[in-house]
Fold this sequence. Notes:
Layout: E1 2-9, H1 13-24, E2 29-33, E3 46-48, H2 49-52, E4 65-67, E5 69-74, E6 78-83, E7 89-91, H3 94-108, E8 111-114, E9 118-124, E10 127-132, E11 137-144, E12 162-173, H4 179-182, E13 185-190, E14 197-202, E15 206-214, H5 221-231, E16 240-250, E17 257-258, E18 261-263, H6 279-297, H7 306-331, H8 333-341, H9 346-354, H10 368-380, H11 385-397, E19 400-401, E20 404-405
Parallel strand pairs: 1-2, 1-11, 2-8, 5-13, 11-18
Antiparallel strand pairs: 3-7, 4-7, 5-6, 9-10, 10-11, 12-15, 12-16, 13-14, 14-15, 17-18, 19-20
Helix pairs in contact: 1-3, 1-6, 6-7, 7-8, 7-10, 7-11
Amino acid sequence: MTRVDVAVVGAGPSGALAAYRLAERGASVVLIDRARFPRDKPCGGGLTQRAIRLLPFAVDTVVEDRVSRIDFRLGYRSSFHRCAEDPLVLMTQRRSLDAFLVDRAVGAGAELRNGVKVSRVEPDGSGVIVRTNAGDVRAELAIGADGANGVSAAAVGRPVPRRYCVALEGNVPYEAASSARYRGRIVLELGVVPGGYAWIFPKADHVNVGVAGWESEGTNLRRHLGRLLAAHGLPADAVVGLRGHRLPMRAADAPFSGKRVLLAGDAAGLVDPLSGDGLYEAALSAQEAAATARRFLDGSVTSLDGYGAALLARTGPLSAASWEWKHAFDRFPRLSFGITRLPFAWPVVQALLRGELIEPAASRGLSALPVFLLSLLGRAANAPGATYRREAVRAGRGLVVGGESMGTASS
């Protein structure tokens, strides 16, 4: 049986980044994934600047486009656009990004076991055993980063409830789409899918097109995608690589950890309710999971409980606002679109995408008005934002563990 400090289950962005951060600091790490890399993954592939600033290294080699313009549209009719001086989102593909991150983890000293299926993660009094079809691994602790359908969540000792949205996306080559029209910009179609939106994202040789909404919209996604394509004059028969997937969104009070197990990324339900973005949350949870694991290994802490508090301090206020804004656009699309169109809403959008604004309610001056109005509409639409906000406040009270803030780790 292999013995290591940390077993990381799942080699997507959260798992690979956590493995890199631990191995780079000298911990022995095994990184396990059932797929063989490189492999593709359904995802829009947008790295916001708030995600980029959390990465411990540059990812320029896998960036395919840099977005500084966002086109906001309502119901395939009304529209406006906003531009930033510097790129807000870097476009990549998960096949390239994930393989790059895995390579960096291996380069830092992590052992990769890809093509290996994990059947169970079993904590015990002295560590954790990861059962695989290629031999078991004993570790001091495990980081579960195996997605919404992985086995790690079962090891935290109590249910990990989630809410779900669903998405359908594919690619249209630039032979069938105008590269001049879409390069350097993101198109967001609002008010067209209940509980979500439609999008067009630019890549090196194609655009990624997709739709997402409430889980109940699953049977309607093809029709929604057809409307998006028709509205933009994109031929339906040019779409390749069409794939559907679920977006796991953490329910309030769901656990982040258990005895000897930390959950990261999609395994913890860390997907932004409004945008469906999970790459920022993957990078953040990898950072905090690695920091907590190091403290546990060196004896600075005897419990993993501070991990959840650290994550909630960073994600709770934003998650609360995202739920409110999501419900606002779903119930009051025209009014919400009009609020977003206000010129002083754009600084808030930029600050959020750049990671300069963690708590939207902290906006000041005129920029505070659209935040307040959208949240007000969300509450009128019975959004669960208040529940997430209260949870974040409770977590903030317990952030200091052993005299050190658990939410300030940067490496």
